[in-house]
């Protein structure tokens, strides 16, 4: 209802610079311009004549005259004892021409440089629909996030003025200390908290590495099937990407050696613990060979190790990161709390060789200044209280169960169509679509979305965006019942596809 909820408002800007003639008409013109441009919305309440007069330094009667004029023209409505409002049917640019508030009328092209991104490298944003079971990624089940403890910790943190101030660009010291303890105890990685940089998700850590390390024309090796947002930051830094195949033992280090023989490679981006997207683990002998190759290369190759879901390893003990055996200081270790806790918090971290860490810190200070001290302090408290450790244990148990549910459902419903790649961990399963369905992978997935389940297809992971006969099926973000239903829908999508399109 009009004016039912008085809006707390900013001082109204009335542009009188173009005004001609009597002041009240100039004010009326400025207000109708503001309505037309959408700066004042239909039904919005205008300031009282007295206060607008004081703001503009004119007599109250001048404003009354301006308002009367606009009421007469139909731009405004005066409601006795309530105030003056923009007319409900006032024409705005938004309605009138279908443009947006800030769309210039005759925009001159800005001739921006090309970002040079490849297929799938522009973040499309999550597409969610009511009733759609999302099994297309490795996002955690945020319905299980420890929100009560998070809210309590944040409330405490934000009350402290120091957490509202400029802080340490490396991240809150308590969070760095907590992360260093976790890395030492759970991942066999001895790092000094001072050498750790807290970033906004691992994406910003990768961006900082790319900007500090890569110069236009440098070659950067990436897993041939891999994580498109990481590829994107290397491309934006001007790198030429060199795809290296991945097999059941992880990155093919021999193939990397051959690529190195063709010319220097500045860096290798890889996901050794659970390769993204196939979830295979890089074998111990390849790890040794990779470290040797990196040290022998001239200039030395920097190994960028993205260990995004370390906790979720279900068979045997998690493998110690490459960074734990880095005698020459060539490994940058990148981690995230997006999987363990929640991606929306944007908390990641990097441990880099000192020279590189210093350059990353400088770039961070200049581009982003720092992270969010209150969030960082709150999350530090969750570590200090053991809340996150308990959450990690609960989630690992839940995801292990979900993984089994998905494996069983896939064997029952789609055992004749999909081969599942064995893996020891991760938050998704990598599957291969058998012939004769392989050629129809994309159409099958599209039909599955219509029937209410989304899985990722192989096309999303390659450098060229070509269709590949694979599904990556996430199990962490769906409950066991949702997983069973999702797989049934996937099967139904195939049945439909079989009868109608083959
Ligand atoms: C390979 C890989 N690295 C990192 C991340 C996490 O990114 P961020 O920490 O920026 O949320 C993901 C999440 O999907 C991922 O799949």
Please tell me about this protein's structure.
With 502 residues, this protein is α/β, with parallel strands linked by helices. The protein folds into three domains: 23-97, Winged helix-like DNA-binding domain superfamily/Winged helix DNA-binding domain (Arc Repressor Mutant, subunit A); 133-141 and 391-501, Alpha-Beta Complex (Aspartate Aminotransferase, domain 1), CATH 3.90.1150; 145-389, 3-Layer(aba) Sandwich (Aspartate Aminotransferase, domain 2). Helices cover 39% and strands 13% of the residues. The protein contains 15 helices and 16 strands. It has helices at 23-36, 49-56, 60-73, 93-97, 147-158, 173-187, 201-213, 228-236, 253-261, 284-296, 354-367, 373-384, 387-414, 441-450, 480-501, and strands at 76-79, 83-86, 133-135, 196-199, 219-223, 240-244, 246-247, 250-251, 267-270, 302-306, 331-336, 348-351, 418-420, 428-433, 453-457, 470-474. The strands form four sheets. Strands 4-12-11-10-9-5-6 form a seven-stranded mixed beta sheet, sandwiched between helices. A five-stranded mixed beta sheet has the order 3-15-16-14-13. α1 (23-36) crosses α3 (60-73), α5 (147-158) crosses α12 (373-384) and α14 crosses α15 (480-501). The longest helix has 28 residues, at 387-414. It is globular. Pyridoxal-5'-phosphate binds next to α7.
């Amino acid at each position: 209802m009009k004016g039912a909820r008085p809006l707390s408002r900013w001082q109204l800007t009335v542009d009188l610079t173009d005004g001609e003639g009597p002041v009240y008409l100039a004010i009326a013109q400025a207000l109708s311009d503001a309505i037309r441009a959408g700066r004042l919305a239909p039904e919005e309440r205008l300031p009282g004549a007295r206060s607008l007069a004081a703001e503009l330094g004119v007599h109250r009667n001048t404003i009354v005259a301006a308002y009367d004029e606009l009421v007469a023209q139909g731009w405004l409505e005066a409601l006795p004892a309530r105030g003056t409002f923009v007319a409900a049917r006032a024409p705005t640019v938004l309605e009138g021409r279908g443009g947006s508030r800030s769309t210039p009328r005759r925009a001159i092209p800005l001739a921006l440089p090309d970002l040079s991104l490849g297929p799938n490298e522009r973040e499309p944003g999550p597409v969610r629909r009511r009733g759609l079971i999302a099994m297309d990624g490795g996002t955690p089940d945020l319905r299980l996030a420890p929100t009560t403890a998070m809210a309590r910790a944040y409330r405490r943190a934000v009350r402290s003025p120091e957490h509202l101030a400029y802080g340490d660009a490396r991240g809150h010291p308590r969070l760095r200390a907590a992360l260093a303890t976790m890395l030492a105890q759970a991942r066999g990685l001895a790092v000094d908290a001072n050498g750790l940089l807290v970033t906004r998700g691992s994406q910003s850590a990768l961006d900082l590495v790319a900007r500090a390390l890569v110069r236009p024309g440098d070659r950067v090796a990436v897993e041939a099937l891999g994580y498109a947002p990481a590829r994107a930051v290397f491309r934006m830094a001007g790198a030429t990407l060199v795809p290296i195949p991945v097999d059941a033992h992880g990155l093919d280090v021999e193939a990397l050696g051959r690529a190195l023989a063709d010319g220097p490679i500045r860096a290798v981006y890889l996901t050794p613990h659970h390769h993204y997207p196939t979830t295979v683990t890089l074998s111990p002998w390849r790890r040794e060979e990779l470290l040797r190759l990196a040290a022998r290369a001239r200039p030395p190759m920097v190994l960028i190790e993205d260990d995004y879901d370390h906790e979720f390893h279900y068979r045997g003990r998690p493998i110690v990161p490459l960074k734990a055996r880095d005698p020459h200081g060539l490994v940058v270790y990148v981690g995230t709390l997006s999987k363990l806790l929640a991606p929306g918090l944007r908390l990641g971290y990097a441990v880099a060789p000192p020279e590189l860490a210093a350059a990353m810190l400088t770039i961070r200070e200049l581009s982003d200044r720092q992270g969010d001290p209150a969030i960082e302090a709150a999350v530090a408290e969750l570590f200090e209280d053991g809340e996150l450790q308990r959450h990690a244990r609960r989630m690992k148990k839940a995801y292990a169960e979900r993984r089994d549910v998905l494996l069983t459902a896939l064997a029952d419903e789609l055992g004749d169509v999909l081969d599942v790649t064995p893996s020891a961990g991760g938050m998704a399963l990598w599957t291969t679509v058998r012939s004769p369905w392989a050629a129809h992978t994309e159409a099958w997935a599209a039909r599955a979305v219509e029937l209410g389940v989304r899985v990722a297809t192989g096309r999303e992971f390659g450098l060229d965006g070509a269709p590949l006969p694979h599904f990556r099926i996430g199990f962490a973000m769906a409950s066991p019942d949702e997983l069973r239903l999702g797989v049934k829908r996937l099967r139904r999508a195939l049945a439909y596809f079989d009868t109608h399109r083959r």
